[in-house]
Amino acid sequence: MNVLHEISTIRIKSRLGGVNCYLIETDAGFILIDTGYSTSRNFLDRELEIEGCRPGNLKLVILTHGDIDHTGNCAYVHKKYGAPIAMHVGDMGMAGRGDMSYGRKPNIILAMLLKRMPLLFGMISLFSDSSRYEGFRPDLALDEGFDLTKYGLKASVIRLPGHSAGSIGILTDEGDLFCGDLLTNMGKPELNSIMDDRSAASASVELLKGMNARTILPGHGDRFDAKTFLNSQ
Length: 233
Hints:
The radius of gyration is 16 Å and the shape is globular. Helices cover 29% and strands 25% of the residues. It has one domain (4-231): Metallo-beta-lactamase, Chain A. By secondary structure, it is of the alpha/beta class. The longest helix has 14 residues, at 117-130. It contains eight helices and 13 strands. β1 (4-12) and β2 form a beta hairpin.
């Protein structure tokens, strides 16, 4: 029976405070959740090799949403490692263009820029990174309840819209929740302040309260205890 062996965090530093990619080792091979900026390609390559992930044993790349700090290396990883790319159809337009405004309300990019000055410089770097972005077409559409067992991971997909329309989470049978950018932990666990649809984000948090999440692994910041956070909301 395939079981979850290990979760490795690959933290890619940036002026935005860094972004997390998660590498999961199972009996069947590896699954990579998110891929970081295209400018971090060499770093990602080294980290994957250190963990024993090589062409042939990477079984799937899952994207929690379409922002380029999460999708930047997808085309490269697909070509080198031969792994299919999976995401929700709601953010696939971002994947082809590297356009973080695609399918979002007009005010979200402005909100990103105005949040704080360090973030402004980070966004400049991010848009600079978009000039190197290589678009791609995902191989697999993920939606609520999609079972990942065939890829060696006892887990299912959860729809978590809010940060973007196509945002998803991955919840393992052990209770590890990869939440993308719905929640962050940059100093303290909290709802991400940058939201395309805040009411949808609140509904996503309410949805999580009824699930068996034990540990939350966010796209930005350290993992944290799910029950402590959700009970406080």
